[in-house]
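We read letters as residues; the fold follows as C-alpha cells. Both lines appear below.
***
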Amino acid sequence: MSPILFNLSIDPLLCKLESEGSGFQHYTRNITILAFADDLVLLIESWDGMKENITILEAFCDLTGLRTQGEKCHGFYIQPTKDSYKINDCPNWTINGTPINMIEPGSSEKYLVVRIDP
C-alpha cells in the first residue's frame, strides 16, 4: 500500500512541474522531470530554470508536509560555450536552504545503478 500512497501524494508535484516548470527540450517534447519510486530527477536547460523548479518543489513540500533530503541531492550544470562547455560554473542550488552537492567532472554519482558523470 505504501508505494501507491506515495505515488498518489507525489503526482500533483509531477503535474505541476510538467505544466508550469522549466524543462529540457528533446525534439518536440519538453521534459521537466523523471521519477522512479522515490527518486526524482529535474532536467533543466538553464540555471534560472532549475531555481524555478526548485521553488515549485519547495512550495509543494510546504503544502504537503513532505520533505527532501537535501544532503542526498546531487546535480550538475553544463553550460555550452562558443568552443566547448563549462561545468558547474554557477552558484550552487539549494533546497530549503540545504546546498545541493554539485558533481564535478571526473567524479560520479550512482542513480538507479547507473553512474552519472557530467
The chain has two helices and twelve strands. The mean pLDDT is 88. The longest helix spans residues 2-20.
